[in-house]
């Protein structure tokens, strides 16, 4: 699955609708301090179903909504859309047959998050599993946060194993087994 485009509106510092093309070979984002590089990576994690506000550097999930500035009032919602090329049909069911996936997450103040795939409402879990199977996702070791390397070095073996399982693409299986056991 090839990421193609990331669209943001009202997400952190990206108050106006912004669109970024993600082309093969992209290896980094450069820019001055505070220009929004980390916010972009967080938007990517967020649309893939991140549940930890702390990983978004906030106290609560609503902190991802543009909080206002000297010149602009705060927003009441934020939305991020990730477009994925699924022409190789690698996405799991029920998304396998759709050649392009527009995955959208929106948060409204006081109402929490909603997710849509190609305009149709889905559960957070559906989006999380979609990426878990692709060995990517909000907790994927493919996305390295600032400070994460030193955390990994200091981590307990159990936690380090989780990173290896993500990298090996088996964490989606673990999640489904856990859900099956709960039923
Ligand atoms: P560095 O090079 O220092 O790592 P960066 O490019 O990664 O910088 P970010 O951390 O992505 O920068 O962006 C920080 C900016 O985003 C700050 O100016 C901060 O005020 C702004 N910001 C974060 N959350 C919000 C929010 N909810 N509303 C408005 N602005 C926000
Ligand atoms: Mg940064």
UniProtKB/TrEMBL annotation:
It is found in: Cytoplasm. It comes from the Bacteria. Signal peptide: none annotated. ATP binds at residues 32-39. Required for chromosome condensation and partitioning. Contains large globular domains required for ATP hydrolysis at each terminus and a third globular domain forming a flexible hinge near the middle of the molecule. These domains are separated by coiled-coil structures. Belongs to the SMC family. Homodimer. This is Chromosome partition protein Smc. It comes from Asticcacaulis currens. The lineage of its organism: Bacteria, Pseudomonadati, Pseudomonadota, Alphaproteobacteria, Caulobacterales.
């Amino acid at each position: 699955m090839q990421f193609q485009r990331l669209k943001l509106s009202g997400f952190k510092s990206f108050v106006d609708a912004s669109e970024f093309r993600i082309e093969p070979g992209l290896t980094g984002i450069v820019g001055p301090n505070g220009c929004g590089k980390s916010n972009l990576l967080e938007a990517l994690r967020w649309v893939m179903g991140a549940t930890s506000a702390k990983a978004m550097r906030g106290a609560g999930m609503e902190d991802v909504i543009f909080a206002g500035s000297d010149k602009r009032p705060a927003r009441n919602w934020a939305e991020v859309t990730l477009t994925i090329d699924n022409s190789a049909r690698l996405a799991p069911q029920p998304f396998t047959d759709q050649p392009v996936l527009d995955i959208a997450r929106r948060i409204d103040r006081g109402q929490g998050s909603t997710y849509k795939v190609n305009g149709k409402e889905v559960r957070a879990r559906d989006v999380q599993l979609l990426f878990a199977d692709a060995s990517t996702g909000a907790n994927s070791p493919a996305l390295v946060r600032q400070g994460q390397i030193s955390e990994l070095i200091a981590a307990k073996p159990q936690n380090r194993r989780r990173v290896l399982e993500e990298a090996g693409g088996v964490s989606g299986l673990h999640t489904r087994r856990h859900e099956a056991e709960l039923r």
